[in-house]
Amino acid sequence: MRRVWLRVVLAAGAGLVSLVVCSGVVVAIVMLFSHTTTFGFFGSGSGPRPIFWVGLVGLIIVAAAGLSLPARALGAKRDHVTNTALLSVLGFCAFVFFVVVSLLNPYFGVPLALMAIVATPVIGSLYAIREDYHHTVRLDRATVIVAAAIYCASLLAFWWVYAQDSSLPYYLVPVYVAASSWLVVPGIVAALRPD
């Protein structure tokens, strides 16, 4: 029993570190974009300079390294860690894309961005244990139910925040709720995976 709790804490901690690394990557991407792009009046600006694309590739590599931590905590080995990190990077890139879309239409982009941020640890955690362990109905069902509950809670937070006249920090509440899945889902997978 003590070993299971240690495994859960280790997986949840790896999810937290992964979340912190990826949050830093998002902030770095925004700062890099703002420093390498010039905006002019009436569309006379220019696109990002080549250094932006080099920096973007480097930041995605850093995000992939951070996203590999939960897979390692769940027991994935060698090439399987790389495959899990690549799948998770796709989810992370979908989140960033839908955040940009939400700037144009928040009622379309935000629910999809929240879905992407919740789906990233679900896909990564379940794929991480695919190689060495057989999935059980109990594990898959519990993971999907928890992920759906977190997603629904983040949608409720989204509708509540946008119905209020709130300041900027409150607009991030739905993202905070959805990002909690990065701690909870790896912990649940660690607790319920068959030995």
Characterization of this structure:
It is a single chain. With 195 residues, the chain is an all-alpha fold. It has one domain. It has helices at residues 2-36, 50-73, 78-104, 106-128, 137-163, 168-171, 173-179, 181-192. The model has no long low-confidence stretch (mean pLDDT 85).
Indicate the percent of residues in helices. over 70%
How many individual helices? Answer: 8
The figure for the number of domains is 1
- Spans of at least 5 consecutive residues with low confidence: none
Beta-strand content estimate: under 5%
Head-to-tail CA distance between termini: 12 Å
Silhouette: globular
- Rg is 18 Å
What summary fits the major beta sheet? none
Task: Write down the secondary-structure element order.
Answer: HHHHHHHH
What's the mean pLDDT score?
85
What class would the helix/strand composition place it in?
mainly alpha
Count of beta strands: 0
